[in-house]
Amino acid sequence: MAISFVNNVQALTYTKVADYLQTAALFKDSLRAYADIPQFDVLYGSTLIAIEVLPWEIHPWERADLATVRATSCVTVGSTIDHELMHFLLTENRRMRFGAFHLDDANQVLFAESVLGGENMDLMELQTCILSVVTIADTYDDIIAQRFGGQRAIDRLEGAMSPSGGCRLI
Q: What's the angle, vertex CA 15, arms to CA 39 and CA 74, rounded to 5?
């Protein structure tokens, strides 16, 4: 099955991201591309990152086809989702220069950051986005697991992330 794109900008962005990831010394050895969705997985150190190329359909411009690239990493699995954890994540989000913590449908703690795709997408910004997600996920997995229970996501991963950007567990 071929990948279906919403617009030409998403297709162009996917090609640029694929070319970059396949040639970048930092990522090419641990890269996995999906055959049917515009997503890649990269294992960097002990952090698994899903890199999705998404259409940007609701934006401030009337006539423009746009796309974004979102890098996401699962941080913890099974943490107690309560007021204290939510307060902690929202407070930490305020400190972030780029990206934010959020929960997936299974209440796993994720961290994600996005960059604008398209013809003028800056590859240094893409690399910085991916490495920022790696750094935050690797820094906060121990903190969150220790303070709010659960496990670091890397301890539970079978080596892949689901297409929704969440963790696929053993």
A: 25
Residue closest to 101 by CA, chosen among 129, 137, 69, 59: 137
User: Measured between alpha carbons, how far apart are the two ends of the chain, in Å?
Assistant: 26
User: Each residue of 114-134: pLDDT tens digit?
Assistant: 999 999 999 999 999 999 999
Task: Write down the pLDDT at residue 167.
Answer: 56
pTM for this predicted structure: 0.88
Question: Which residue has 């699995």 as its token pair?
Answer: 77
> How many C-beta atoms lie closer than 10 Å to residue 110's C-beta?
22
Q: Do 67 and 13 contact (CB within 8 A), yes or no?
A: yes
Is the four-CA dihedral 103, 104, 107, 111 of positive or negative sign? Answer: negative
